[in-house]
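Thread: quick sanity check before group meeting

JM: Hey all, I'm pulling together slides for Thursday and realized we never actually wrote out the predicted structure for the chain we discussed last week. Dropping the sequence here so it's in one place. If anyone has concerns about the input, flag it before I start.
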Amino acid sequence: MLQSPRTLLVVGAGPIGIEAGVAARARGLDVTVVERGVVADNVRRWGFVTLFSPWKLDTSTLGERALLEERAGTRPPDREAFPSGSEFVERYVEPLAKSSALRGRILEHTRVVSIGREGLLKGEQIGTSDRAARPFRVLVEDESGRERVLKADAVFDCSGTYGNSNEVGEGGIAAVGERAASARIRRAIPDVDGADRSAFVGRRTLVVGHGYSAATALAALARLAERNPETRATWAFRSDATDPYALVPDDPLPARAELASLANRIANGGVPSIAVRRGTRLDTIESRADGGLDVTLVRGNEHAKESFDEVIALVGYRPDASIHRELQVHQCYASEGPMRLAAALLSSASSNPSGDCLAQTTHGADTLRNPEPNFFILGAKSYGRGSSFLLKIGIEQVGQAMTLLLGEGASR
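JM (edit): ok, ran it. Output follows.
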């Protein structure tokens, strides 16, 4: 009979990776958390943005109890309040990372290069629990370029998707010239109201995409233009819908409702400083000698070249599957998420016509299983290219994965 796992390696020290580390330590596992940047690195990048979800949906009972026991100097937040990304890190994620449970167990500035099984190739012992008898071998690289191998009985991949952006060209591939101009394209929400203000004030900006990240950037550019009338923006998106954002009836998240309403108003010409290019795709991007970008926008058979000082491409993110390429992971051919969960998400989407992400629930521990025993993809990465992930879902996933890992040993 195979032994229950004793060691766990967590990839990523974001909110769900830290949650997994604390949960594992509470169950007596020896834990190592590997983070390519610093704790909550990706959240810090949009720290100026206020979360749609209140504190009560962003934290766990286990995490809150751990902080109380630590007396970490953080007073409990108002559970009905909506934190910014920075507040969430400073008052919850970072104190948990510094708690006694995880102290000395987080390897920052360390990148996971690849994960395999000791003594086994990807195509050996296909779909059998016998693979769990061999430890995972995890090749990591620190910021100096030094490599080493870490071993673990189980691996939780909580590395997320933020920072691994989709391309902006038609069909999901890069537009002509996009790769050459990549250093000039912003692929995360800029701090238009703060640190990045000088890049946009009095200048022309192209915003591509029609998710909530794009709406957030557009709202900030609209505010900037109110104070600085020379500021101009163009919004290009693929949809032909009159209102590209579906409003949730009696939305329990007022900030989401306000942002969606503003974005729909912009889409219908309600903000003079922002021009709208509906039903439009990007064909080419070319860098200019002055640092700007010439972009060819296409609608139907019409091609128009426009010049911009900044381009913000907020067209979604995708998981990096390269790190587990040598493991037996069954991925959805459309979303690139784990197949069982992807199928459950697709099914639930058809039964949730409102599109309200708050209406979603976890789909059971069984959907987190992979053919590779004791390997779990959790958090935002488990949703593949989907953008409806909530922190509360990730927290519940951690508990379910722990039950599978320790309650069923090495079973698949």
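AS: nice. Residues 391-407 form the longest helix (17 residues). Residues 146 and 396 are 35 Å apart (CA to CA).
JM: adding both to the slides.
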